[in-house]
Amino acid sequence: MKFNNIRKISVIAISSVLLLTQLTGCGTSASASPGTGKGAETAAASGTETAAGTEAAADQLDRIKAAGKIIVGIEGTYPPFTYHEADGAPAGIDVELAQKIAEKLGVEVEFVDGAWDSLLIGIDSGRFDTVINCVGITDERKQKYDFSDPYYYEAWQIVTRADDDRINSEEDLAGKTIATNVTSAHATWYQDRGVEIAGIDTGDEAIEMLLTGRVDFIDCPVPVMNTYYEAHPDVKDKLKVSFVVKGGEIPKGIPVKKGEKRLLEEINKALSELREDGTLKALSEKYLDGDYSVSQE
Known about the structure:
By secondary structure, the protein is α/β, with parallel strands linked by helices. The protein has 11 helices and 14 strands. Helix content is 45%, strand content 18%. The longest helix has 28 residues, at 5-32.
């Protein structure tokens, strides 16, 4: 619901750093020791270049290892994926998954809450190392981020009020209004079909807007609906699944900044081990009442 050109870029970036370092090194040598001569000046610049090169070579995985922690962005308001216990502690399937991946990396995990629409931006700004919060792997997002292998597959179902029979297929969506995040993996798909989007911040807000008639439908995953029904049993008879979008299953993955190859490899290695030892399946069954770690289509 919310929801390589790398080598060339790296060479340009490193070259720029080295050029800047050379210029800075020359200026410092001339100013601090006017009589030291060209040989000393060159040596100083060379030493600075080596330090800069070492710093440039330290990728995100190195920085995470050095810090002893990986910073993970979560929404914290999207049960059963990420939410908070009564004592404020983060919980949910994605929280446990992040903790297990951190263990595989040999570091601690620090969770930082953020609004869904700003989570991926947190990777760009360096606020997070990654986001583990039911992030759909889409072609649009893959242009900006590198994604891990999928760890969860989400069926795409259209939910309406139980007494509303106007929506029964994709063709019925035109002219209707949905409550969803404006950065939802499905947002463009809806807009292309003439659907108006009413922006929301949380799943609960979307369901409330549907129940009160402010929107015509929502696209809520089965696990999220089940969690909502557990907390609001009186609502179950008021909503229904009108239809499931064929071929609309969206795999969920873990995004990292473009070009962070080593970090992505380590995350994929961790996911592979967690899949092979049955952990991904166990987490899915624990939180989602079914094995959604494999495709349902």
